[in-house]
Structure formats: structure tokens, C-alpha cells
Amino acid sequence: MAALAIAGIAVPAASASAATTTARPAPASAAHRTGPAVGPAVFVMTDNTAGNAVVAYRRAPSGTLALAGTYSTGGLGGVLSGSVVDHTASEGALAYDREHGLLFAVNPGSDTVSVFRVLGDRLELSQVVWSGGVFPVSVAVHGNTAYVLNALGGGTLSGYRISGFGSVSPIPGSSRRLGLGTTAATAFTGTPGQVTFSPDGRSVLVTTKAATNAVDVFGVNWDGTLSAAPTVNTLAGDVPFAVAYDRNGDVVLAEAGPNAVATFTLGSSGVLTQLAVADTGQMATCWIAGDGRYFYASNAGSGSESGYSVDGAGGLTARGTAATDPGTVDATAAGHGRFLYVQTGKSGIVDEFAVGADGALTPIGSVTVAGSAGGEGIAAG
Question: How far apart (Å, rounded) are the C-alpha atoms in residues 370 and 120?
């Protein structure tokens, strides 16, 4: 998290409007579009408090991005008190559901989640639904089930069923309270960072950052609800922030406390057992992205990406560090791992990289996302 390593002026939190009903607006057209082509895309969320939006970029064969359109979410962005370049202090604010062709975007300032249909590099707004809590920051999808992580009010999880028609509805009895005890003074560091399904869909993992320095693991029941209580994996002082998975299904964790990347096995009972750890040597290591082969940790305080490969036993091998624009936050891999796109929160720039055969990153360009300074949420279609 940037606040752990960057000194800056805190941005006051946006006020959240109470949204307690499910809305189904008419499909939204792009605020502006360029070019008739439809192709592979990268989507970026602005988290703008005056009106949240998802900006779509067409990805060229070379990996460079071209603006395809800007789409209102029908909700508001939000800012956690104490944040500087990462206003939601989370990973997974934008989630692509490839199976159903849907894109989920959180609206922290409205306590809602927007659901878009994905048509290549075009989007069509399908639904805006209540997030089930206060200040949603992360979404996870597996099969026909989605879970939304709400950061404030102690942290909550809310489940949704995805229909074959691309619409979502709340799962009765799915809400779970995390009970993190977050206060106004700890809204930035003491809120949860990410919700994610295990690769087999049998578990839901939540990182609690500095609130309890834990990864909470819930079991997933047959009806999509979660176990009544999680298995709590306490990682004292590690500030677990974001999760990815290697090809064996092992957990790859970004730890903001020691500025490190660590690997773990995930047992059937929800217990994490550490395999390896590697210090990045950078500042504010919070986000982790990859394609199962190479993984890249975003270092907000250093303006850099640290690359790693993971072997069959969970061992970590450094693959170099690449400079980014200031305020490195979330990232996504695309093109079967040939490209990496990195959000940088200070000026709202997305840096484009080609991934070499050895995992090294080569810069190939960048785009400035209008109105997205401090925003988080990026996904590849």
C-alpha cells in the first residue's frame, strides 16, 4: 500500500450513497468511441468520485493499446481516507468473467456493483446491483458464483448467482461479516484487500492487510454459500494484500509489510503452509499479477514491477525489476502471458510491457486514462 512507503496529502473519503435495491438500467452506450474494429481488449476502471467509468482499450498484435470507448458504470468511485495513489487499496476492483462474457466493476462511492456484457472491446451495461455492504473494493468469480468484498463496516462478503442470461441475483444466506474492527483512522491500512476463489472453486480467500495480518479462507458450500466462519491464517506483520495462483494451484501472495512475495500450499481445511519467500527490495509491494508462469509484484512506493517465476515446488526465482510511472498499483497479463499492463495511480497512466521468454519486461508504450488518478481496477478481455 502506498501509504506504507509514500508521504503525501491524504484525500478525504467520498461519501457513499445508500443503495439498497437492484437496478436494471437500459444498456449504456459509450461516452465516446474510436474506430469500428472489435478485438482483444484491456479494461481500466477510473474510480472517479464524480462518476465512475470503465475505459476500454483495443490491444494491437504488438501489445500497444488504442482507446476504444468509455462507459459509465452508473455509480460513483470512492476514496479511502489516508490513500494517496491507490484509492481503494485493493486488487480485483474490476473482474472479467470469461465464461459468461461479463465484466464486474465496483462502485465504492455508491455501494453498488456494475455488470457489463463484453462484446470484444465494447461494453454494454446490464445491471447495477447493491454490493451487500459498504464500500465494495473487490470481486471474484468462479463458475456461476460471484463474491463481492466490501471494505468498510468491518468488512463483509456477499454472494451472487450468475444466470445463463448474464444477469446476477443475490444468493440467500451468503453474507458473511469479517469483523475487522476498522476505524476511521485505519480505513486505508485496516480494510481487506482482495477476495478470490481458489482455482478449484472450493474455497474463497480474503486478505485482511494490517487489520489482522491474515488470509481468511472460507469453504464454499454446494449452494454457493460460505462456511459460517473462516480458517484464519495469521501472518504476523506481513500485511497480506493480494493473491494469485501458480500452475499447481499454490497461492502466490504479495506482502506489504516486508515488501515480499511468498508462496503457499492451500490445504483442504483452509490452512496455508509457506513454501518460499523472496524480498522484492522495493517499497509498498502490494499487488500481484501473472499468467501461472511468471508473476509480477507492483511496488507503489518505488514505481516498479518485480518479476518472478515459480517452480513446481513453489520456489521463487527473480526475473528482474522494471521501472513504471509513479504510483504502481494493479496489473493484468494478456495475450497468453505475452504482455503485462500496469496501472500507475499518481497520474492515471497504464504502462504497457512485452514479456520476454525469460520473463523480463520490455516497455512498449503507455496510455493516460482520463479522470483515473488514484484509480484501481484493470482486466484483460
Answer: 21
- Dihedral sign (CA 195, 294, 65, 89): positive
**CA distance from start to end of the chain:** 26
> What's 294's domain CATH number?
2.130.10.10
Position 222, amino acid:
W
β-bridge partners, 310: 316
Note the pLDDT tens digit of each residue in 123-155: 999 999 999 999 999 999 999 999 999 999 999
At residue 216, does pLDDT exceed 50? yes
DSSP states of 28-96 as a string?
PPPSEE--S----EEEEE---TT--EEEEEEEPTTS-EEEEEEEE-SS-----TT-SS-TT--S-SEEE
User: Does the pLDDT value for residue 81 go beyond 70?
Assistant: yes
HSE of 261 in the Cβ direction (CA atoms, 13 Å)? 33
276: its cell numbers: 518460499
The residues, any chain, with a CB within 8 Å of residue 229's CB and separated by 6 or more, are none
Report which of 50, 47, 155 is spatially closest to residue 108, judged by C-alpha positions.
Answer: 47
Q: Domain count of the chain?
A: 1
Give the range of the structural domain holding residue 201, as residue numbers without chain letter.
2-14+23-380
Question: What is the pLDDT averaged over residues 115-122?
Answer: 97
User: What is the grid cell recorded at 19?
Assistant: 443503495
- Report in angstroms the alpha-carbon separations of 245 from 200, 287, 296, 374: 11, 13, 12, 26
The one-letter code for the residue type at 121 is D
Listed in sequence order, the residues at least 6 apart from 53 whose beta carbon sits closer than 8 Å to its beta carbon are 31, 45, 46, 70, 71, 72, 73, 371
**Residue for grid cell 470503465:** 54
**Report field, pTM of the whole predicted structure over 0.70:** yes
d(C-alpha 83, C-alpha 364), whole Å: 29
Cα separation, 263 vs 258, whole angstroms: 14
Q: For residue range 286-297, what is the model confidence (pLDDT) as tens digits?
A: 999 998 889 999
User: Residue 1's pLDDT is what?
Assistant: 64
Beta bridge partners of 20: none
Pairing of β 65-72 and β 112-119: unpaired
